[in-house]
Amino acid sequence: MEINVLNIKGENTGRKVTLNESVFGIEPNDHVLYLDVKRYMASLRQGTAKAKERSEHAGSTRKLGRQKGGGGARRGDINSPLLKGGGRVFGPTPRDYSIKLNHKVTVLARKSALSYKAKEDAIVVVEDFNLDAPKTKDFVNITKNLKVDGKKLLFVLPESNKNVYLSARNLQRAEVMMASSLNTYKVLDADVLVMTENSLKIIDEILNK
Predict the structure, then answer these.
(1) Does pLDDT of 10 surpass 90?
(2) For residue 15, which phi and psi values (nearest 5 degrees)?
(3) Which of 21, 62, 142, 192 has a Cα-to-Cα distance from 1 of 20 to 30 A?
(4) CATH class of the structural domain 2-45+100-207
(5) 42-65 pLDDT, tens digit each
(6) Contact 199, 177 (CB under 8 A)
(7) Cβ contact 47:82 at 8 Å
(8) Contact 7, 77 (CB under 8 A)
(9) d(CA 203, CA 99)
């Protein structure tokens, strides 16, 4: 699949890039997409929720009433879960929500996500660019020139670029990522991928090792 290379003014440079069929032209696997998105979302969970159990509450351990014959439950001391202010039964405890996936599964998921975007014609390729200073207005003008303004955008750059990142930071529907950090969730979440020429080469190298 060939795509025209544009400049940041939205003009055709006369060059074309061929998207690697092994990355952008495979038959997407929906199940591995689900697994990789689930893994990403799980990694965002802090897992710090904590409730005090019976043994962790401060309070007297004196038995409040007789074991039998009171007409109610056997509640023991004041820290009993049956009483207000008592410990919680099976409450949340700190845990790690991360999910492990095989490397081949994550690679297939990313290829599937990129293939979906290619099928939807939701990939725009621009020549490598830089901004002289961090300026949101300049970044907005680029999106207008590329005719992708108003859409949820993911700009993929070959390396970290502070000026571009800071220029896009104030925009709710635009995000900038390095090609090496690209993940399945971000690709699927965006309406359009705006990728530079060199970032395509890096993605090919990473996903075809």
Answers:
(1) no
(2) -100, 155
(3) 142
(4) alpha beta
(5) 999 999 999 999 989 988 889 988
(6) no
(7) no
(8) no
(9) 24
Average of pLDDT values for 121-128? Answer: 93
Residues with Cβ within 8 Å of 135's Cβ and at least 6 positions away in sequence, in order, are 167
Where along the chain do the CATH 3.40.1370.10 domains lie? 2-45+100-207
Distance CA 124, CA 5 (A): 8
Element (H, E) at 22: helix 21-24
DSSP characters for 79-113? T-TTSTT-PPTT------------HHHHHHHHHHH
Location of structure tokens 């008592």: 86
Print burial letters for 3-29: b (CB count within 10 Å at least 16), e (below 16).
bebbebebeeeeeebebbeebbeeebe
Q: Is the pLDDT assigned to residue 72 strictly greater than 90?
A: no
pLDDT higher than threshold 90 for residue 36: yes
Reported as a pLDDT band with limits 50, 70 and 90, residue 206 is very high
Q: Tokens 């700009």 appear where?
A: 155
For residue 76, list its beta bridge partners. Answer: none
- Dist. CA 29–CA 107, nearest whole Å: 11
DSSP string for residues in 107-142 = HHHHHHHHHHHHHTT-EEEE-----SS--HHHHHHH
